[in-house]
UniProtKB/TrEMBL annotation:
<dbReference type="InterPro" id="IPR000515">
    <property type="entry name" value="MetI-like"/>
</dbReference>
<keyword id="KW-0762">Sugar transport</keyword>
<feature type="transmembrane region" description="Helical">
    <location>
        <begin position="196"/>
        <end position="221"/>
    </location>
</feature>
<protein>
    <submittedName>
        <fullName>Multiple sugar transport system permease protein</fullName>
    </submittedName>
</protein>
<feature type="transmembrane region" description="Helical">
    <location>
        <begin position="25"/>
        <end position="47"/>
    </location>
</feature>
<feature type="transmembrane region" description="Helical">
    <location>
        <begin position="154"/>
        <end position="175"/>
    </location>
</feature>
<keyword id="KW-1003">Cell membrane</keyword>
<keyword id="KW-1133">Transmembrane helix</keyword>
<feature type="transmembrane region" description="Helical">
    <location>
        <begin position="90"/>
        <end position="111"/>
    </location>
</feature>
<keyword id="KW-0813">Transport</keyword>
<feature type="transmembrane region" description="Helical">
    <location>
        <begin position="259"/>
        <end position="278"/>
    </location>
</feature>
<comment type="similarity">
    <text>Belongs to the binding-protein-dependent transport system permease family.</text>
</comment>
<dbReference type="Pfam" id="PF00528">
    <property type="entry name" value="BPD_transp_1"/>
</dbReference>
<dbReference type="InterPro" id="IPR035906">
    <property type="entry name" value="MetI-like_sf"/>
</dbReference>
<feature type="transmembrane region" description="Helical">
    <location>
        <begin position="123"/>
        <end position="142"/>
    </location>
</feature>
<keyword id="KW-0472">Membrane</keyword>
<feature type="domain" description="ABC transmembrane type-1">
    <location>
        <begin position="86"/>
        <end position="278"/>
    </location>
</feature>
Length: 293
């Protein structure tokens, strides 16, 4: 407050600014440019799915469809089995995500709150596996799946991905911030380790769990190479991402680009809907990690 009694806001990182600075305008402009550049492919995909084949081949390109039509979406089901492919993708992504959350919570809790011989060395080895390109483990994993007779099935696609090094690392970092006194009090009350983990610890790291669920679901929904390798041409088990490749072959001569865009639009809807529901937790996880740092 000034000498005259007029209140003036303090300036600083955590205080209200009376007026934006030139730096604020620059940052806002850069954020807007990045947002537009990121959203443009998605918007173009949706608009192209509503165009006629002639409009998709027009030069210069027509930005907006003259008469928007959903005809391409109806034709997609005539080329691929959209319902079955979406179901296969949902099964793969949902089961894998659930497995990753459970195993990451359990392993992250053990690394964060339990003391055992070789803990740090084992955690360092786990982190090192994050730097291995997926192509390196493709053939060994495929041979293992073939040995136990799961090749050509959705179970073979899901099983090797039920645990994830990044998920364990993420959960370990967040669970480490849970007060030890809270866990010790629960143990004194006779709570088991599993009860402590899923009833006490897990709700406290909900933003991290939601962020991990979003990452895992989107990654495995969009997975292409591993399902293609395991399923071995079993088209009935193909997820939607692999089924979309048939639309590309159907689009020879670029005469059915709207059909390809319609299929791609259908494929991105489930991850997009999931993000809308989990975005609040996702942002909270970023804020929490920043505050802890």
């Amino acid at each position: 407050m000034s000498a005259a009694g007029e209140w003036r806001p303090r300036r600083g990182l955590f205080f209200f600014r009376s007026r934006p600075t030139s730096g604020d305008y620059i940052v806002a402009t850069l954020m807007l440019v990045v947002a537009v550049a990121s959203a443009f492919p998605l918007v173009w995909m949706v608009l192209s799915s509503l165009k006629t084949p002639a409009e998709t081949m027009q030069v210069p390109p027509a930005w907006l469809p003259e008469s928007p039509s959903l005809e391409a979406f109806g034709k997609v089901s005539g080329v691929i089995n959209v319902g079955r492919s979406m179901l296969n993708s949902a099964v793969i992504a949902a089961i894998t995500t659930a497995g990753i959350i459970v195993t990451s919570l359990m392993a992250g809790y053990a690394f964060a709150k339990h003391r055992f011989h070789g803990r740090n060395a084992l955690f360092a080895l786990l982190i090192a596996t994050m730097f291995l390109p997926p192509i390196v483990t493709l053939i060994p994993l495929y041979r293992m799946i073939g040995t136990i007779g799961l090749d050509g099935s959705l179970a073979g696609v899901v099983l090797p991905n039920l645990a994830n090094a990044f998920g364990i690392f993420l959960m370990r970092q967040f669970i480490a911030g849970v007060p030890d006194d809270l866990i010790d009090a629960a143990r004194m009350d006779g709570a088991s380790e599993m009860r402590i983990l899923f009833v006490i610890v897990a709700p406290l790291v909900t933003p991290a769990v939601a962020a991990l669920a979003l990452f895992a679901f989107v990654y495995h929904w969009n997975s292409y190479l591993w399902p293609l390798t395991v399923l071995q041409g079993n088209a009935d088990q193909y997820p939607i991402v692999i089924s979309l490749s048939r639309l590309l072959s159907y689009n020879r001569g670029a005469m059915n680009t709207n059909l390809v865009m319609a299929g791609a639009t259908l494929a991105v809807l489930p991850p997009l809907v999931l993000f809308v529901f989990l975005q609040r937790f996702f942002v909270d996880s970023i804020v929490s990690s920043g505050v802890k740092g």
